[in-house]
Description:
Number of strands: 9
Strand content: 15-25%
CATH class of the largest domain: Mainly Beta
CATH topology of the largest domain: Jelly Rolls
Shape: elongated
CATH superfamily of the largest domain: Regulatory protein AraC
Number of helices: 11
Number of domains: 2
Radius of gyration: 24 Å
Distance between the termini: 71 Å
Amino acid sequence: MSANSNSFSRYLPSDQQAKEWGWRLVDAGRQKVPKNSIYPDKGHPQNYLFDKSGRRTLDEYQIVYIAAGHGQFESASVAQTAVETGNALILYPGEWHRYSPDTDSGWTEYWLGFQGREATRIMSAFFSPAEAVINVSQTKAILQHFDQILHWLQQPVAAKEQILASHIPLALALLRSSTQSDSIDHNSDAELVLEAKAEMLSHLTDRTDLEALAQQLGVSYSRFRFAFKKQTGHSPREYENMIKLNRSRDLLSRDQLSVSETAQALGYSSVYYFSRAFKKQFGRAPRQWRSKQVD
Length: 295
């Protein structure tokens, strides 16, 4: 399969020299998954497919980089979490995991699988199964690196296994750099989210244009959304809806606004949508909730 096509993969046989090298590339590839398609496709060896529950356990480490799209990830060490463009998943041997793109986006993924004495040492010293989702800061570099690996997979050169194996430590170094950048950027992320919250609170009558807000704050939308969820546990839109619904209780009880007036004051597109969101959040429809407060 051509490296210029949407999908390309290679699964390599065991090589004694590669084992002695301390690093061994086991497999690598790229896959573009269209919207509303079955994932994963069937073009992989049997032991790489997911079971009926959607889980899989490998006997190798893997790095899976999401170059476009979004989806979900879960493992024995990580509760189900959202995965965004620019995230890398680190999979561990002997630990079950499952992941897939959301049907409304699909995604483009790059991956490499590896084993080896040195690989085990580095993974144990610098990475943890509990931190399996990494927001990659060096996105251009890691994409170029994956492309280099896919290029070398197709070259008929001597010592190809050692050339391929030598790419694994650099891929891990790029991920390690990203985790260190996350630590350095923690305070700036907190400030970013505080500014975003203040902006939302000052414009409760409107539905916030989140992409425009991210641009106003000087970051990409994917970076903004990732930082916001990391700091609050909620996506920006979820958080905005929560503060609007909390404010709606004041308007209904203290200011004695009607349900339709409250919905309009908080920028909801319809009374129906507001009432449905209110009931989902507080367990009662707005009128029932207000009657309960009076009682």
